[in-house]
Design a protein that fits this description.
Length: 323
């Protein structure tokens, strides 16, 4: 009997020790889980802050690309870790909105944030997202017939473009940029490039200069080639189509036409003012605004283009030029 009681006491003691250990393990695991959660939250907040900082840097870099003369301008940006820049184009509102949402790669995964840097006066043409550690941006002014805005083209060093049989104006401009991922000669046999072909419809990106469209990912994006202020052909919209996804291109065009409409209204008011002092410009700016307001897709550009050319020619010959 005494022996049985002793065994029962030992069993109880063993149970108490086992329970203590089990409780300690559970508490320890809970504390460890809290610690991991806290670190993850801290890293998430830090990652979000890093993403936002990169978005601000992009905004700062975009400002010098605003140019007031007829040429292209290029710049680049490098980041310490692999980044993904999402190009978000919003049509709603008077001029729509350009937003950039940045994700960075950490531990093999992309960070996620709903916060985006936004601009109402920027027009960025690119794929829906661009990935890499080095990014290139170059810009060209878009005149239609007056300056509407600067168009910005964003690409990654991970993608190299080879322009094959491009017009001399395009070739010279690209060579002048000295942008390492834009090639215009001695690249047609390379396998590590995206071929942009003028005349060869078998390439990944096909530029048709007879009907003025770019075919990319089985989508057609139409463009026009107006004259710049020096009378040279302006390929700003062609570049936009080459470097863009169709959805981005069409959205940015819609925004540009909204801006064109407002500027046409301002110049029409200016025309009324100068007519009071005997300078009648006789430009159909009301018609230009009407066509811009009715714009729905890139295929409508030709309708505006014909009137745009007429207005530009008249303004160039006018005694009192409006722009």
């Amino acid at each position: 009997m005494h022996l049985l009681q002793s065994q029962i006491k030992m069993n109880k003691k063993g149970f108490e020790i086992s329970f203590a250990w089990l409780f300690g393990i559970i508490v320890g695991a809970f504390i460890l889980a809290l610690a991991i959660y806290g670190v993850a939250k801290f890293m998430g907040v830090g990652q979000t802050a890093s993403d936002l900082n990169l978005e601000k840097q992009i905004g700062v870099i975009l400002n010098p690309l605003e140019i007031g003369f007829e040429s292209a301008k290029s710049t680049s940006m490098e980041v310490p870790v692999e980044a993904r820049i999402n190009n978000i184009c919003i049509e709603s509102g008077s001029f729509g909105r350009q937003e950039l949402n940045v994700s960075q790669k950490s531990f093999g995964k992309w960070s996620s944030t709903d916060i985006a840097a936004g601009f109402t006066n920027k027009y960025i043409f690119s794929d829906e997202f661009v990935e890499g550690r080095k990014f290139f941006l170059f810009s060209k002014p878009f005149n239609f017939p007056f300056k509407v805005s600067d168009l910005i083209y964003m690409t990654s060093s991970q993608k190299k473009y080879c322009f094959i049989n491009a017009p001399s104006e395009v070739k010279d401009e690209l060579l002048g940029l000295k942008q390492e991922n834009m090639l215009a000669e001695n690249c047609s046999l390379r396998s590590d490039v995206i071929k942009v072909c003028f005349g060869d419809s078998s390439c990944e990106i096909y530029v048709n200069l007879e009907n003025n469209y770019v075919r990319k990912n089985k989508e057609r994006m139409y463009f026009v080639i107006p004259k710049d202020n020096f009378g040279d052909e302006d390929y700003a919209l062609m570049y936009a189509a080459v470097f863009s996804e169709s959805d981005v291109y069409e959205c940015q065009l819609q925004r540009l036409m909204g801006r064109l409409s407002s500027l046409a209204s301002l110049y029409d008011n200016k025309a009324e003012f100068v007519s009071r002092v005997g300078c009648d410009s006789n430009l159909n700016l009301v018609g230009l605004r009407s066509l811009a307001d009715g714009f729905s897709a890139s295929k409508d550009l030709n309708l505006i283009f014909n009137l745009e050319e007429e207005i530009k020619d008249k303004n160039d010959l006018a005694e009192c030029k409006l722009w």
